[in-house]
Amino acid sequence: MEKSTANRIIEILSFHYEDKPALNFSTPYQLLIAVILSAQCTDERVNKVTAKLFLEHGTAESMLTLSEQQLEKYIYSCGLYKNKARHILLASKDIIERFNGQVPSSLEDLRTLAGVGRKTANVVYSVAFGKDAIAVDTHVFRVANRIGLVDATTPEKTERQLMQILEKKTWSKAHHYLIYHGRARCKAKNPDCENCPIKELCLKKIKR
What we know:
With 208 residues, this protein is an all-alpha fold. Helix content is 56%, strand content 0%. Helix 5 crosses helix 6. 41% of the residues are buried. The model has no long low-confidence stretch (mean pLDDT 94).
């Protein structure tokens, strides 16, 4: 796809979707925890869980007063709760001991935290610190490849290709637009092509 077309797609999507995540948070730390919890879980469910969790344990210091078993009870409904609880406590410990109680603002440091992969690091880097990055989750991966923005076999390759074709200033916003579009129109099953705002620019129109 030509760069002009790709950036036109992002421009069109900007009129239909928000440029911020659906997760509720007040601090970079809370965003980090919410993104960890969102793995294979809906944002709606995460927000229900964090409403209570953050009210009672919204800082790394407070989180570390919980045992894994106690934290598991808070986050049970998010799924994968044992791994998530362990990662959250390990990441919180790192934040306190290695980063003076502050979530690190560099991608390299973010990726050293427990439970923080490339996608999570990119989300925190872009949303919490206002830096340019494209986080590729399942929606971004599916939509970007389906409509022809990229032709990639992995999330990391998708990220690199999106960075090459999209204007840098739109990277972070494009991430949100593609997620919302994947949820609202370009769904994994039964995509709503008829009402798609970018159907005329889609290079890989779904065959019915």
